[in-house]
Amino acid sequence: MAKSNLQFPDGFLWGGATAANQLEGAYDKDGKGPNLADVLPGGKVRLEKIKDYGFDFEIDTYKYYYPNHEGIDFYHRYKEDIALFAEMGFKAFRMSIAWSRIFPKGDEKEPNEAGLAFYDKVFDELHKHGIEPVVTISHYEMPLHLIKEYGGWRSREVIGFFENYATTLFKRYKDKVKYWMTFNEINGAVFHPILGLGFSAKDEESRLQETFQGLHHQFVASSLAVKAGHEIIPGSQIGCMLIYAPVYSADCNPENVFFALREEQIFDYICGDVHVRGEYPVFAKRYFKENNINLEIEEGDLDIIKKYTVDYIGFSYYMSRTEKKDKSGESSVEGNIMDGVKNPFLKASDWGWEIDPVGLRIALNQLYDRYRVPLFVVENGLGAYDKIEEDGSIHDDYRIDYLREHIREIGEAVEDGVDVMGYTAWGCIDLVSASTGEMSKRYGFIYVDKQDEGTGTLERKKKKSFNWYQNVIKTNGAEL
What SUPFAM superfamilies does the annotation carry (predicted)? Predict the structure, then answer.
């Protein structure tokens, strides 16, 4: 442990982050309907399906393995896992609710009581240990019925279904959940709409039009959720959630600098501006014109968006991105559904994601300068191969080093004057990777004995990083 000499705010929300579809399992239990994650196969083929056109959203168990069906069985082991989170000292646990566990098809008027009761138990268990739930309403798990019958978020009808779903959650959990976020990594749809918008584009020609129309529907739905949440739960904090990656120019050529600026605007700021400022940014008009994007905006949409803005920004940060207008001859780098050119000053993870702790400080400063609302780092972590030693120990010093440097930069941003609410490390317990469906891409402080092909006992085991993070929380970041 090293002294950090940094002062984190009193009440800072230290904790960990997960998503229902990646850890719960029990995909067809107690009335839950199938959702998007349930039809995504495991392995590298998953990334191909996410990026490709015309995915059929069917399950073929003869051809593929579907790791999200079992996850890590949090559905039956939540008490054990929450006890481990409490042992680390978590102040907050960022989680999501599976939409199809509450509304199995998505378009019903009445919810599934068994699904609601499950989350009652989870919230009660968290509160028993003094852990504040931070709940994402929609995290890559749209009901399959809404995808197949309505075309996902391409359909305006889905706005009403989501409003009913969100309102149901607020009414049920008004005394149990204060912190909410509407859509996970909403801007990720700019690259691949399948995860966030629930459709697979037919071709590149139609992708942008359908994507931004779907995003507009989500903007309206998010604002309606903010309205309902504030009315039903006075004092609640309802945020948006973005992937955030600062975009660097590959060099000081003004052409590349402006190209990087435009990439950053389109990916990082359109969604943020609508959520926080309550309006589309000025540069969006030109971008839409140049890409033949013609949004169908109904009367009252812009008024709703303007009036019901979010209280804070939650965001994931894993890497920065380096761009160049002409990429021919350049080595490409991919990570977290984004790509760019190689940054010679950065090392990369086992999965090729470039590691840039200072980029997190840059991200926090950029976001706070632009929006002046509280920020919450709700995802950050290192996916890596973990080795179990002969004595059963797991020495994940590489993970400790990664997290230490990123947390240090958050502390620096706080010193810069940025209002940071908290930090929830991604995948605080090993879970199914969203992009590849692998278990071997491990993020957790807690090892779960499950392998890529589905074998394993599901036994939980503490890694070296468990005790390290426990002390970080205990000292409020004074010892890293």
Answer: (Trans)glycosidases
* DSSP category for residue 130: T
**Rounded to the nearest 10 degrees, what angle do helices 113-128 and 157-172 cross at?**
50
Considering the entire predicted model, what is its pTM? 0.97
Q: Is residue 200 domain-resident?
A: yes
What is the sign, positive or negative, of the torsion defined by CA atoms of 165, 171, 172, 173? Answer: positive
Which residue, among 315, 16, 62, has the nearest Cα to 181 in the 3D structure?
A: 315
Distance CA 284, CA 293 (A): 10
Q: Count CA atoms within 13 Å of residue 313 on its CB side.
A: 33
Evaluate whether residue 271 is within a structural domain.
Answer: yes
CATH number of the domain bearing residue 386: 3.20.20.80
- How far, in Å, CA of 234 to CA of 238, rounded? 11
Q: Can you read off the two tokens belonging to residue 11?
A: 């009440």
CA distances 386 to 1, 312, 443, Å, are 21, 35, 9
Q: How many domains are contained in the chain? A: 1
Q: Is residue 419 part of a domain?
A: yes
Per-residue tokens: 275: 């959520």
Q: Residue 348 belongs to what domain range?
A: 13-474
Q: What residues does 313 pair with on adjacent strands?
A: 240, 375
pLDDT at 209 over 70: yes
434 close to 23: Cβ distance less than 8 angstroms = no
Instruction: Flag whether pLDDT at 415 surpasses 80.
Output: yes
Q: How far is CA 111 from CA 114, 120, 146, 298, in A?
A: 9, 14, 15, 28
CB distance 196 to 150 below 8 Å: no
Percent above pLDDT 90 for the chain: 90
Give dist(CA 463, CA 390) in Å, integer: 14
Compute the average pLDDT of residues 148-164: 98
CA distance 338 to 362: 18
DSSP state, residue 275: I
* Active site residues per annotation: 379
pLDDT at residue number 337:
65
Q: What is the pLDDT of residues 307-362, one digit of tens each?
A: 999 999 999 999 999 999 988 877 777 766 677 899 999 999 998 899 999 999 99
Backbone Cα Rg of the chain: 21
Evaluate whether 238 touches 309 at the Cβ level (below 8 Å).
Answer: no
- Res 386: pLDDT: 97
Q: Which H or E element spans position 248?
A: strand 247-249
Mean pLDDT, all residues of the chain: 96
Those residues with Cβ within 8 angstroms of residue 288's Cβ, 6 or more apart along the chain or in another chain: 212, 294, 295
Q: Is the pLDDT of residue 1 over 70?
A: no
Spatial contact of 36 and 142, defined as CB atoms under 8 Å apart: yes
